[in-house]
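TICKET: design request
STATUS: open
ATTACHED STRUCTURE:
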């Protein structure tokens, strides 16, 4: 995309995209991108993206958990330049934040996963493609030259999973992640209210919200109806409703650890298990041969009441941190959150909504901007904390926050007011 091709290097060495639409230029953090996405997307779509399960306590805790640790910065350290490069799942990355898998990204922008994969590649990181993607795995494989991971489920029909693995090998995916926190689907009440379910049953307000987003509707008209093309052959239909129903029939609630090893062996490369919160499970993952664990609760979309990844991280690092890569997935909205996770022993973080908000706010340029915001915030946080290398963050910089937290004095100003 031209916007990113036109990026020029600024004096501090980071890419500055100076041709972004004005509305994107007004976004200075992930929360700004979220609000812009909210304005641009039909409300059922935005709430599908933004929401979590039941009372959303886990969703909120995923981010607020970071506030329970303070940083005690070190001073008079030469932080003229800090090292951010890291190797995750066998891939050399510019910095330690990867993109989490999320289905149906054409909901957020007509170019969907193709745009997000290009944004990740331009931001120097790994893009994870969800099994339930709205562009085919073969098309996403060729959309960018950046490293990509494919997210699988072990379906009831194991041949479907075997077929996906064979196609990933053929298409040049570098790693696999197996999601294990979807034995059944979480109860997401925002979706129930808006009618964004199967079958879709939109309220009048929801339908009006679609009608009021002509740009979004134009994108849909330009690129054709939603579907999950990676699955079309298995579902025997090109209809999204039929494919989603098929997917529902394929979730295997009887899956156990004994089913996993076959697929790790079949892949034979870097393999992450995504959706663990317990140290015991992390040990099981190590024992079946996984190379990484993604400490995650599916972005608060599955079990409401589940621990936040940041809360679960220290025990998992203690249990397996020397043997497998530990990736914190969920709740990251600031660069300093990444710094805190690394200080607790995570090798990297993975983000979902941040780049999806960016995608909804401004397509590829918006997704890229979300990643750049996190990257520059991480670098600034490292400099201000006296940390010089992401591979070597001193755990001593963290201190548990005791006592009541100061209330936020003022809500951030609305986007329009800036
Ligand atoms: C809209 C949406 C769709 C998602 N779809 C999937 C999916 O298909 N497979 C999967 O393993 N995780 C999925 N996830 C979970 C993400 O991979 C990731 O765990 C989560 O977004 C991390 O939390 P964060 O959004 O706070 O960064 C999805 C998350 C969101 C927000």
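STATUS: resolved
RESOLUTION: sequence designed for all positions
ATTACHED SEQUENCE:
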């Amino acid at each position: 995309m031209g916007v990113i091709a036109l990026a020029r290097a600024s004096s501090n060495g980071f890419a500055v995209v100076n041709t972004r639409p004005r509305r994107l230029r007004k976004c200075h953090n992930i929360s700004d991108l979220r609000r812009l996405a909210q304005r641009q997307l039909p409300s059922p779509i935005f709430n599908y993206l933004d929401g979590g399960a039941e009372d959303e306590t886990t969703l909120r805790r995923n981010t607020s958990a970071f506030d329970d640790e303070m940083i005690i910065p070190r001073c008079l350290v030469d932080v003229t330049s800090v090292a951010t490069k890291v190797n995750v799942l066998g891939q050399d990355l510019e910095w330690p934040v990867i993109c989490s898998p999320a289905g149906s990204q054409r909901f957020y922008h007509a170019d969907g996963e193709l745009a997000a994969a290009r944004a990740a590649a331009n931001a120097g990181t790994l893009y994870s493609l969800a099994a339930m993607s709205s562009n085919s795995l073969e098309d996403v494989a060729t959309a960018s030259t950046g490293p990509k991971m494919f997210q699988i489920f072990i379906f009831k029909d194991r041949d479907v999973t075997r077929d996906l693995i064979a196609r990933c090998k053929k298409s040049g995916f570098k790693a696999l992640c197996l999601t294990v926190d979807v034995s059944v689907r979480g109860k997401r009440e925002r979706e129930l209210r808006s009618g964004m379910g199967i079958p879709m049953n939109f309220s009048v307000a929801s339908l009006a919200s679609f009608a009021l987003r002509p740009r979004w509707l134009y994108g849909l008209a330009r690129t054709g109806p939603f579907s999950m093309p990676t699955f079309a052959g298995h579902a025997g239909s090109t209809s999204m409703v039929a494919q989603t129903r098929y997917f529902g029939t394929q979730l295997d609630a009887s899956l156990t650890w004994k089913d996993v090893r076959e697929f790790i062996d079949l892949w034979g490369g870097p393999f992450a298990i995504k959706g663990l919160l317990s140290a015991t499970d992390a040990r099981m993952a190590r024992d079946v041969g996984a190379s990484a664990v993604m400490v995650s609760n599916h972005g608060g979309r599955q079990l409401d009441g589940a621990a936040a990844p940041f809360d679960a991280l220290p025990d998992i690092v203690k249990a397996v941190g020397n043997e497998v890569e530990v990736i914190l997935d969920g709740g990251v909205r600031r660069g300093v959150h990444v710094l805190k996770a690394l200080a607790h022993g995570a090798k990297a973080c993975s983000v979902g909504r941040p780049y999806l908000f960016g995608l909804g706010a401004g397509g590829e340029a918006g997704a890229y901007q979300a990643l750049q915001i996190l990257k520059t915030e991480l670098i600034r946080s490292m400099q201000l904390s006296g940390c010089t290398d992401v591979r070597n963050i001193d755990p001593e910089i963290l201190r548990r926050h005791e006592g009541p937290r100061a209330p936020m004095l003022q809500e951030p100003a609305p986007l329009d007011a800036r």
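CLOSING REMARK: The first strand starts at residue 8 and ends at 9. The CA atoms of residues 51 and 190 lie 6 Å apart.
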